[in-house]
Design a protein that fits this description.
It catalyses: (R)-2-hydroxyglutarate + NAD(+) = 2-oxoglutarate + NADH + H(+); (2R)-3-phosphoglycerate + NAD(+) = 3-phosphooxypyruvate + NADH + H(+). Residues 327-445 form the D-3-phosphoglycerate dehydrogenase ASB domain. Catalyzes the reversible oxidation of 3-phospho-D-glycerate to 3-phosphonooxypyruvate, the first step of the phosphorylated L-serine biosynthesis pathway. Also catalyzes the reversible oxidation of 2-hydroxyglutarate to 2-oxoglutarate. The chain is α/β, with parallel strands linked by helices and 529 residues long. It folds into four domains: 5-100 and 289-314, 3-Layer(aba) Sandwich (Rossmann fold); 102-279, Rossmann fold; 325-452, D-3-phosphoglycerate dehydrogenase, domain 3 (60s Ribosomal Protein L30, Chain: A); 454-529, 2-Layer Sandwich (Alpha-Beta Plaits), CATH 3.30.70.260. The protein is 33% helix and 24% strand. The protein has helices spanning 15-22, 37-43, 60-65, 84-89, 102-117, 120-128, 154-165, 179-185, 192-198, 218-222, 241-250, 288-308, 324-345, 366-378, 390-396, 468-478, 511-516, and strands spanning 5-8, 26-29, 49-52, 71-74, 93-96, 146-150, 169-173, 188-189, 201-204, 228-232, 253-258, 277-279, 350-359, 400-406, 414-422, 426-433, 439-444, 447-452, 456-463, 483-490, 496-503, 521-528. The strands form four sheets. It has a seven-stranded parallel beta sheet with strand order 8-7-6-9-10-11-12, sandwiched between helices. α7 (154-165) links the parallel β6 and β7 (169-173). The longest helix has 22 residues, at 324-345. Bound molecules: 1,4-dihydronicotinamide adenine dinucleotide and 2-oxo-3-(phosphonooxy)propanoic acid.
Length: 529
């Protein structure tokens, strides 16, 4: 197999290049490419992986051209520059490095707070201009002030910790912050209105989502305390920049420090030029330490995925460690094949699919296995679906996906059952993985069998009557089809029976129709795996 190829299209630390190479991944380092979307679109089709920071915008248009792409790695935290639904729909894993730059970014927010409180940038410019305006700059003390943190996750929590070290009172608004965690962090959890009314300084640390966009709107700004200072080191778009400018002009807001802007690169912005505004060009993560951390980590994660199938910190797929990957692999194949079996037999509208895990397999990454089963199920109907995209494709089509785990209670250490409910019927198939690592099908619609999955198979359900096997074999023989393996199952003598037959090569047209005419045959279907 040729080595996987990765394109680095943003200014990652060159440390990443070394890691990729050491791990058998070819790497193309073009740190400015992300800014040129046409060139990126022109070459992205050659790569299995794309490593980015915030300058590369991975839009659905870029993804349409990314025919070989398997993984996008964000050397940093925010993935709002990636169209995640579009990546997921194309089966591309999107991973980030959720902690590598959080201390550095929190430190930047604290630095911005001091810059605002003591007007350091303006004082610096004035001093170096030879003005010595000692009376112009009158700061405010940080000690004893109330810091309002909007979004108290990884970065917000570090900011809270540092602020407490500075003897500030810390209040936080974050709907997902548990009272226990708030207590642990020593912050007072409050509603947004209370934060706005009480904070002397507000700092934002939420991702940009439809819920957080414009969280500091004109109305919200109007509810803040007079003389408040506002820091945004999270994402442009969280604050209404025009309304903030007006509030600065009126003197209601005493100062603002922004690292991120609604349009980036921010070559102009409503906040620019105000004497109490401090700006940096998206430098939150820009320290040598943080950049090394995120570059090394993303290169490791992407290499592990491309070479070993391990998944860490994916925002659109469950994690699978490098140790788990080989153990999971045969079960992924099993789940996909069971799903495929059910999908190939499905002729009417799919309503729901239930995947049941019994025994040892119940302790594995069942979410990944369920995605594989759904991918296998949908593939006979939709060619472009894979393990990553399957859950979202199913959801889009209104197919309910359920997962159940149970204790082992049968002959097998592990048993996976895929049950498909269509408009007409419910059908289950079960399988396991034997010690040889090969997936086997062990139960079809409650009838026990023991069959392997083969590239070309015929499935027959029939009444258990003498003469069927002879006629069936003759029909195939007459058509020049060689039987490779033959697995039979039935519920009771004379009851319902099934045959799962592996044949060499394609089943010629017309053969299935002839099988269908054998007395007692209810259904005959070709299957491919
Ligand atoms: N300026 C820069 O260079 C950098 C900026 N960032 C930005 O900082 C953001 C935060 O990063 P982390 O703390 O690591 O993320 P995180 O996911 O650990 O924390 C985000 C917090 O926001 C909270 N949240 C979500 N929706 C909310 C809402 N509607 N109202 C209030 N809180 C809400 C979440 O519950 C979570 O606790 C990132 O999403 C990224 O956009 C991150 C790194 C560098
Ligand atoms: O990690 C993040 O979310 C950041 O915003 C850092 O962005 P950058 O990698 O410096 O372009």
């Amino acid at each position: 197999m040729p080595a996987p190829r990765v394109l680095i299209s943003d200014a990652l630390s060159p440390a990443a290049v070394q890691i990729f190479k050491e791990r058998g991944v070819e790497v193309d380092f073009q740190p400015d490419l992300g800014k040129d979307k046409d060139r990126l679109a022109a070459i992205i089709g050659q790569y299995d992986g794309l490593a980015i920071r915030s300058a590369t915008k991975v839009t659905s248009k870029i993804l349409e051209r990314a025919s070989a792409l398997k993984v996008i790695g964000r050397a940093g935290i925010g993935v709002d520059n990636v169209d995640i639904p579009a990546a997921t729909a194309r089966g591309v894993i999107v991973m980030n490095t959720p902690f590598g730059n959080s201390i550095t970014t929190a430190e930047h927010a604290i630095a911005m707070m001091f810059a605002l409180a003591r007007e350091i940038p303006a004082a610096d410019a004035s001093t170096q201009a030879g003005k010595w305006e000692k009376n112009r700059f009158m700061g405010v003390e940080i000690t004893g002030k109330t810091l309002g943190i909007i979004g108290c996750g990884n970065i917000g929590a570090i900011v809270a910790d540092r602020a407490q070290g500075l003897h500030m009172r810390v209040i936080a608004f974050d709907p997902f912050l548990s009272p226990e965690r708030a207590l642990d962090l020593g912050v007072e959890k409050v509603e947004l209105d209370e934060l706005l009314a009480r904070a002397d300084i507000i700092t934002l640390h939420t991702p940009l989502t439809e819920k957080t966009r414009n969280i500091l709107s004109a109305e919200a700004l109007a509810r803040t305390k007079k003389g408040v200072r506002i820091i945004n080191c999270a994402r442009g778009g969280l604050v209404d920049e025009v309304a903030l400018r007006a509030a600065l002009e009126s003197g209601h807001v005493a100062g603002a420090a922004f690292d991120v802007f609604s349009t980036e690169p921010a070559l102009e912005n409503p906040l620019f030029g105000h004497p109490h505004v401090v700006c940096t060009p998206h430098l939150g993560a820009a320290t040598t330490e943080a950049q090394e951390n995120v570059a090394l980590q993303i290169a490791e994660q992407m290499s592990d995925y491309l070479t070993k199938g391990a998944i860490q910190n994916a925002v659109n797929f469950p994690s699978i460690t490098a140790e788990e990957a080989p153990r999971l692999k045969p079960f992924i194949a099993l789940a996909e094949k069971l799903g495929s079996f059910a999908g190939q037999l499905t002729e009417t509208g799919l309503k729901s699919v239930r995947v049941t895990y019994q025994g040892e397999v119940a302790g594995m990454k069942t979410k990944a296995l369920t995605s594989a089963a759904v991918a296998g199920l949908l593939r006979p109907m939709l060619a472009e679906v894979n393990v990553v995209s399957a859950p979202s494709v199913a959801k889009e089509r209104g197919i309910v996906v359920e997962e159940m785990t149970r204790e082992q209670d049968g002959d097998y250490d592990s048993l996976v059952t895929v049950t498909v409910v269509t408009e007409k019927q419910e059908r289950s198939v079960s399988g396991t993985v034997f010690a040889d690592g090969k997936p086997r099908i062990v139960d079809i619609k409650g009838l026990k069998v023991d069959g392997e999955f083969a590239p070309s198979m015929i499935y027959v359900s029939n009444e258990d009557k003498p003469g069927f096997i002879g006629r069936f074999a003759t029909t195939l023989g007459d058509a020049g089809v060689n039987i490779a393996t033959f697995a039979l199952g039935r519920d009771r003598p004379g009851g319902s029976a099934i045959a799962l037959v592996e044949v060499d090569g394609e089943v010629p047209p017309g053969v299935l129709a002839r099988i269908q005419t054998i007395p007692g045959v209810k259904q005959a279907k070709p299957l491919r795996f």
